[in-house]
Amino acid sequence: MNRDQIEGGLRNLKGRGRTALGAVKGRARPQVEGAYEQVAGVAQAAYGRTRDRAEHLYEDGYRLADEAASRGHRLHQEARTRGRHLRDEANRRGRELAIRADENRGTTLALVAATAFGLGWLFSRRR
């Protein structure tokens, strides 16, 4: 609850009292002034409620933005770690394959030649 809500509520009560007092005395001016104070008090209290709600929405939005930034940073770090792991694994497997190809040169040469022949045969134009 903020200052405008409190002051608006008090102003509304003051206006009600003034209106009632004017009605008891039978005087129109205090009744009109009291009604004016009531309306002004209700409007001020409504403004205070609206301001309070806007402040809460601002705080919620700020918190959500901070949480989103934190999650984004965490996801970035996880993706970076996972990418490094996958890169290291690919390098390890590539080195193993190169070692096997070097150890079995004849077989590797035959496989490369057969693959090249097969691809050439598949992509050649037929007339």
Give a verbal description of the structure:
This protein is mainly alpha-helical. It has one domain. 93% of the residues lie in helices and 0% in strands. The chain is built from 3 helices and no strands. It has helices at 3-25, 28-103, 105-123. Helix 1 (3-25) runs antiparallel to helix 2 (28-103). It starts with a helix and ends with a helix. It comes from Methylorubrum rhodesianum. Keywords: Membrane, Transmembrane, Transmembrane helix. Residues 69-89 are annotated as: Disordered.
Outline the biggest β-sheet.
none
Number of E strands: 0
Strand proportion, as a percent range, falls in: under 5%
Total number of helices: 3
Shape: rod-shaped
Number of domains: 1
* Helix vs. strand class: mainly alpha
Element-level helix/strand string: HHH
**Low-confidence segments, ≥5 residues, pLDDT <50?**
none
Distance between the termini: 88 Å
Q: Helix coverage percent of residues?
A: over 70%
Q: Average pLDDT across residues? A: 94
Q: Which radius of gyration do the C-alpha atoms yield?
A: 41 Å
